[in-house]
């Protein structure tokens, strides 16, 4: 009786385990978006980080770059491998290497090591990595890998403008931010935002306080992952209770939790990041004061186009206000509520940063 | 251990039990002294700690309470020490330390800590407590689920998966049918399905309970991630826009300062949680059903001899537990955020398991443990905002450190149901 059971058990256990694995694996298998016939046989490939291709944030935006290139007929096909954990990075990158890709775009600084390894062992393959620049371990100087093009963004320049705007808009004299994880690509937003508020205080002799991030101590509010939406909502509520009436969540998909908290509170505005929240978060568009836009789609599209035209170079692309790689979004519903004077000041600051008259500093800058 | 206890062994066990009782009073004394020195005597004087009481929309407005930090912390620490002294006295007289005394000690200690931490700043006391409850709700549902299983001897590691399945299905169903209530009914069904797999494999086919649980977690995670990527994200309007339940403020009760906004201005899911805790408590400890359940978990052979169908009881309880956890999962989508997102339970199922153990497999205990965790987790955020010198990485550890500390220091030896984790094979 028991012996028979045991055999059945092992079989059933194996079936259960296999089906679990099969379902998980489904998400990771390279997906063919469309076997279009245009372009001249150039496949654009992408490996996402843990957020997945539908994260309403940087994976999704980077992916849009490939899709746009495909729609424009620059490339013939788009393939994506989604990572669900750090363990997926290496196999996903290797699977792309075996896929005859024209360019492999890896998204996020977490994929840096996997990309560097693959690039080294496949010198003929071409890579581009979003949000990371390799540096020398000892000197900290940027180093170039011959077949990896870094696509990085000085988002603090645009976040500076958003911080200045938030300070000028705030009625309570308190503005806030919080982040998903304490990594350079998140804190760079917070540095710029913080400095923008301080700049407003200097110019207007005001005393607007920033909660959730302190640039000097480089510490603040972090959920420590990009999935814990309950904790994220709680952070936002706590910041609102401490008086904040503008919040900038830098947390990809769970940033939406801040919108929920802002809606409950009633008179709190949001600053969205990566994309224009007015469009990517339609249900909460009336809460979006502005967005710090990081043009990853354009950067990826341009990199793919250049590669398809045979002009690939491993020189880094650094998105700035000047080259419109980063920007702040239009004020949409808030255009009426922002004084013309404040809007002008922000526009002036933007020009000053572009002209190099005003320098915005961040340790995380490129 | 289970059979043939001689009188002698029972005697020595009782002796040990008596000795162990010193643990709590001694711990109280040490903590009280620590509070006195750290929060009171060593703290700089001259600062005030301010606690906001009223929230927006209260009928009775109460002004924030401001107290001189150092003096208040010393006073509260002295209260801690007085409680500790009384507890020592009771233990010396071989009398048990009542629960209210522990609660009084805990409150005084936490308040003493707060006046110290908030010195020179203002926090909203009501807001902090609201946040604590919000973070505890899924943990309480999860802990009840685990308890229902383990009281019959089935370990349920798949709570995380059941919460996630409940969150997912409730969101999808409410979104497709445009009705939150149908979504709320779908949530326990999702938990039930996961629990059914757990029950079939672990009870019917005797697969190791832990392994099945882990595999089920991976299965639910993979399935929801996959469907999220294919359906919920690209067609969010159809598949992933369920909306949220409104908060219902109970008349009279909801107007009590502090308690009202924290406990009685909540969504239907939280009110259901209060009912669930009470029902499980009464059912487990005051009904014949509960006696049978506990008998199956402690000594299945004896229960079987008494005519209880052991595996039927187990099967049923695992299913009920799954339904409870699934229902709790709806809190993530329909109660809090209003949309489903990837891996949104973020480990709550495992913390729930810890809360169940810390609460000694009792509903009320689990509630306190879950609230403790929620409180610590929320407090690290509040204190971080008002400016704490402790790096955020360490603050994020606080809830876990506190849990370990509570288990090791205050709870003492914990005894799970004797037959926990062992399959029952009728011979």
UniProtKB/TrEMBL annotation, chain A:
The keyword Chloroplast does not apply. One of its GO terms (cellular component) is plasma membrane. Residues 45-362 form the ABC transporter substrate-binding protein PnrA-like domain. InterPro entries: BMP_lipoprotein (IPR050957), Peripla_BP_I (IPR028082), PnrA-like (IPR003760). Keywords: Cell membrane, Lipoprotein, Membrane, Signal. PROSITE patterns: PROKAR_LIPOPROTEIN (PS51257). It is a lipid-anchor. Pfam families: Bmp. Residues 1-22 form the signal peptide. It is found in: Cell membrane. Gene3D superfamilies: 3.40.50.2300. Belongs to the BMP lipoprotein family. This is Nucleoside-binding protein. It comes from Haloechinothrix alba.
TrEMBL record, chain B:
It is a multi-pass membrane protein. GO terms for molecular function: transmembrane transporter activity. It is found in: Cell membrane. One of its GO terms (cellular component) is plasma membrane. Its main location: membrane. Keywords: Cell membrane, Membrane, Transmembrane, Transmembrane helix. This is Nucleoside ABC transporter membrane protein. It comes from Haloechinothrix alba. The lineage of its organism: Bacteria, Bacillati, Actinomycetota, Actinomycetes, Pseudonocardiales.
